[in-house]
Structure formats: C-alpha cells, structure tokens
Write the structure tokens for this entry.
Amino acid sequence: MNVPVRAGSFASPFRPEHDLLRRTIRTFVEREVAPHVDDWEDAGRIPRSFWRRMGELGLLGLDFPPEYGGGGGDLLSSVVLGEEMARCRSGGVAFSVLVHTDMSSPWLVRFGTDAQKRKYLPSIVAGETVCALGITEPGAGSDMAGITMRAERRGDCYLLTGSKTFITNGVYGDLYFVAARTGAGTATRRHDGISMFLAERGLPGFEVSAKLDKMGMRASDTATLSFHESPVPAANLLGIEGRGFQQLAAGLERERLLAAVLALSGATQALEDTVRYLKERSAFGEPLAERQALRHRIADLATEIEAARALVYHAAELFADGAECATPVSMAKLFATEVANRVAYHAVQLHGDDGYMREFPVERFFRDVRLWTIASGTSEIMREIIARRVLGPGS
Ligand SMILES: Cc1cc2nc3c(=O)[nH]c(=O)nc-3n(C[C@H](O)[C@H](O)[C@H](O)COP(=O)(O)OP(=O)(O)OC[C@H]3O[C@@H](n4cnc5c(N)ncnc54)[C@H](O)[C@@H]3O)c2cc1C
C-alpha cells in the first residue's frame, strides 16, 4: 500500500545510499522481525539472535567509523533505521535497537579513547555486546544534575555506588553507559562533578534489582540497577572526569531526534492501518471511508504528520551538518511526539471496538507511543528549552 501522507510532500533529505539502506532494512523487518514481534512482546525481551543478525547486516553502527566495523554513514542513516524499525509494529523492538545504536554507543565514538573504541566498538557493531544508557535514578529524571550515584577513585578503579532506574536494555544488556558523581557540584553549578563510565555487566556488587512491568514498549526490557562499590577500571572513564554532564548534554539532541523519528514513524503506520480499516469496514450501508467526518479527521491527522515530518527532517539535516540544533530538535521532539499521541488516540477511536483489541496494531501503538512525551526529555522540558531560546534565559 502507498504511504498516503507522503504524497506530494516536501523534498526528501535522503540520498540514493539512504534509499538502498531503507530497502535492506524494510526487507529484514518484513521477513525476519515483524513475524516474531508478538512473541517478543509476550516474552518481554528480544532474542540474542536478533542482535547478531542486525550485526551481520551491518545495521548496528551505521555512522560509526569503518576502522571499528562501522558503516561510515551519517545521521540520516539512523533516521532511516528508526523509520524502518518502527514498521515492525512493536515500539519496544525499535526502541531497544535505537537505545543501542543512537542513544548510548555514540558517546563511545565521540568521547572514547582509541583503546576503548578498539575494545568495545567491534562487538557493539556485531551485536555481541548490547548497550544501555544509565542516567535516570529514582530521585533524578528530568533533573539530570540531581543524580547521586557516586564513583570514588580507589587505586586504578572507581567504585560505583548507587541506583539507576528505567534503564532500557538494562536487564539483558552487557555494557552500561553510566553517569555518576566523582565530585560535588556547587549551588550555582550543580551539573559539575558528574562523570561517565563504561560499566560491564557482572561487576562485583552489581545487580539487576528489578525488571520493570510497563504499559507499553513491552518487547524492550527495562531495569532498576543497583551498584555497591562496584569496581570499574579507571580505563573505563569515558571522556573527561567531572565533565560528564556537558558530554551528555552534547549527545541528548541525537537521542531526542531519534525519539521523534520513532514516534512519527509509528504514527505513519497507524494512519495507514486506519485508512485501510475505514476502506474495508462498512456501516450504515457504505464504507466508513465515505463518511465526511471521518475523511476530515484523516485529513487533519495526515496534515499534522506531514508538519511533524518537516520539523524532524529539518532538525535531522541540521544535526547531520553539525549545526547548532538544540531548539529545532526540541521543537521536533515536542511536536512529533504530541502529534503521534493524537494520531494514536484517533486511530483507536476510528477502529471502534477493534481498536481496543490486542490483535489490532493500533492498540499496541496507543500503549507504546505514550512513552514518547515522557522519555528522552519530557514535553515540558522541551518547552523549557524552546522558551529559553524564544524569551531569553532570564525570563
Ligand atoms: C520505558 C522507559 C524507558 C526509559 N529508558 C531510559 C534509559 O534507557 N536510560 C535512562 O537514563 N532513562 C530512561 N528513562 C527515563 C526517562 O528519560 C525519564 O523518565 C524522563 O527523563 C522523565 O523523568 P522523571 O520520570 O523522573 O520525571 P520527573 O522529572 O519527575 O517529572 C515529572 C513531571 O514533572 C515535569 N517536570 C519536571 N521538571 C519540570 C520543569 N522544570 N518544568 C516543568 N515541568 C517539569 C515533567 O515534565 C513530568 O511531567 C526511561 C523511562 C521510561 C518510562
């Protein structure tokens, strides 16, 4: 079926190599992922064989340097990956993959030493090592500077003590990108004294203290992790000691952009599913797709999706060009994730009773997409970033 909302859309940012990549991922998703997602949703995890297969296909380091096994591509390759993974109709599978490829491991590429990259990147790209990002704590989510996990230098190790929660890939992952305090901040510079570490699974004093039970994204595993004097080699300090917050801030735009891509791609699918449903189902003697009220609803949703897509592609191009893009990314994340939630609401409504049933993909999308105005920076935090730019810092 054609993707109706793309008809007559603005210029695509993608080049022929992205189109080729898209075809590869689409075939993989249709043949090897979509048939299994119901099982993975039920199991609350993705099998190891899936990660290795993605590695074989070269999909787990699309823009990483070739000398470490990466594809040497650009950020738009990740946009393609996000768009196509979301077509498997399990937000959890797509989310797990993007946490690995775009929300954690890029910090290693950007801030890692050559020795760290040689040690970890090849197995990350091969799908042998699954990555997770550990920032959020029970007492610190939006307020990243409020983290309290400690990292105390002891000889040639740092001892990690504290707890992380809501960590995607946290239960079954292998390598955790963890933020911890190596020093205290000050009242005016609370973000000082945070450092990033590469913590391998299985450290002494480390445990997965809970596998969290979620509303949606059920194929992705989510953990609470606890560390008690867990020794991380000093060689696994990522970047500069005490500058972790600044390093994290430099990568959050990528995470937020890809969150917007996942939400938007899911919304595009949900709209396609809804259009098909309205054409196939009749009531009062004619297909529902003939009812003007419903046609206008579809028109509104398609328009909102296209507007969101324009913002997302614009922000992605800025990011790919290395331009300053905090505000455009925040606008894209805010708008796309809120549009996607509106699409989910109406997609279920337009499916009637069927929309409430597990066998219809819009039911899962409705649960999955609720995450996206919360995780990777809430809508309120996106508004704060935008407002600061529009109104100035002191207002
Ligand atoms: C399924 C799932 C997966 C996740 N995966 C990860 C992961 O892999 N790694 C990781 O580190 N984290 C992860 N998170 C955490 C996620 O990024 C945080 O949930 C998010 O940052 C929100 O934090 P919080 O829940 O502490 O909200 P809080 O900060 O407690 O906010 C609560 C409410 O107050 C609002 N609020 C907070 N501050 C302000 C303000 N200054 N102005 C206006 N409103 C404000 C928020 O917008 C929100 O509505 C995940 C979360 C979920 C649910």
Observations:
- The chain is about 50% helix and 15% strand.
- The domain at 246-391 is CATH 1.20.140.10 (Butyryl-CoA Dehydrogenase, subunit A; domain 3).
- The radius of gyration is 21 Å.
